[in-house]
Amino acid sequence: MLIAVVGLNHRTAPVEVREKLSFSGETLEGALLQLKSYPVIQGCAILSTCNRTEIYAATMEMDEGLNAIWDFLSRSSGADISQIKNFTYCHTLYDTIRHIFRVAAGLDSMLLGETQILGQVRTAYQQAVEYGTTNRVLNMLFQQAITIGKRVRTETGIDQNAVSTGYAAVELARTHLCSLDSRTVLLVGAGKISELTAKHLVANGVTSVIVSNRSFERAESLATQLDGKAVKFNEMYRYMEEADIVISCTAAAHCVVRAAEMCRVMERRNGRRIVMIDIAVPRDIETEVGNIEGITLYDIDDLKNIVGQNLEQRKKAAVIAEGIIEEELDEFMRWLGMQFVVPTITALKQWGEKIKQKELKRALNRLGDLSEHDRKVVGSLANSIVNQVLHLPVSKLKSYALTTEGHLYTEILQNLFDLEVAGQKPKKKTASHPKENLF
């Protein structure tokens, strides 16, 4: 059984291409069933997120299997295969296994060590199982990838340190408020950075989002995305009385949050603490605000320092994670190698048995009337010869199965003995086997 992955991600394709090759919950079932309908595809799964789409497939014929995936992507997107190849990557066999292990561990993500991808891999697998498109090899591959993803995070702590401004803001807010559950955040400004930061906060338990912006229409648009509330810019101080966290990131050339106003806000908060995060350059919040009792103020430099330190820690954890993956990769290759050679060994033994029976029948007919004892001796001799002839190639194939070249030796053996292997198409009886080189 051969496995392959064809995919695209944030490094190989812009968002306008990724969205054309994405599969949402509504279209995923039909896409999986369509891909599985190709006769050469024995099993398949689709991992589709905002940053990647990857098609995993198990097949007995690699070239034909890849052709089926390219055809499927072309039909799904309406683009020519040549266009799709400009934005996609392809891994087969050993490289496929390493790739999904690295994906599940967060080593292939835009944000090194991110946690979300592990859940996305798990969901992709569960959906493929639900729709009946996996097989034994893909089941084992995804189960092992999920296990490795958990192991990497447990043993390295790679996901424990913030490596983006948004994540750093979440860490800082959590530190000072103990928990983000049921907290309220006020956004001053409705730009991309404050939007992303707010989304991180919401994902970590914040339940109420208030957006204040000079353009009220923009505030309404962002509030709708976050299932929050938009307020006019001149009303922001009143709503700061309710907020636990304030994130400010406007394009103003001067401070928009003044210390004098924040003193009055804190008087009305009756001692409740507030975390204020100023991501703007130039800064939105007067530095004196940080001196007010009950206010913890961070600016962009505070966040960048944390991001830089934590990224270095994640890079060190990633080195350890790569070692874990290589260790697990060797184990999985041993298992997969045995799955691949067993049908070939069975076919080889059947080939030997067929020849033995044919020649034994011919010999017994020529020998004439033999006693039962003599017939058993001749039959035992035939068995012994066939077993000894096949012993070495079978033993060697089993040992090669534990290497990355195991599938190559298996194919060579199949061709040498012209074997018909269960689940595989009969080999063409020609002098050569030209195959289209897709890459």
From TrEMBL:
Pathway info: Porphyrin-containing compound metabolism; protoporphyrin-IX biosynthesis; 5-aminolevulinate from L-glutamyl-tRNA(Glu): step 1/2
All residue ranges annotated as the Tetrapyrrole biosynthesis glutamyl-tRNA reductase dimerisation domain in the record: 321-419
Enzyme type, top EC level: oxidoreductase
Positions bound to NADP(+): G189, A190, G191, K192, I193, S194
Active site per the UniProt annotation: C50
Catalytic activity of the protein: (S)-4-amino-5-oxopentanoate + tRNA(Glu) + NADP(+) = L-glutamyl-tRNA(Glu) + NADPH + H(+)
Assembly: Homodimer.
HAMAP family: Glu_tRNA_reductase (MF_00087)
Functional note: Catalyzes the NADPH-dependent reduction of glutamyl-tRNA(Glu) to glutamate 1-semialdehyde (GSA).
This protein's name: Glutamyl-tRNA reductase
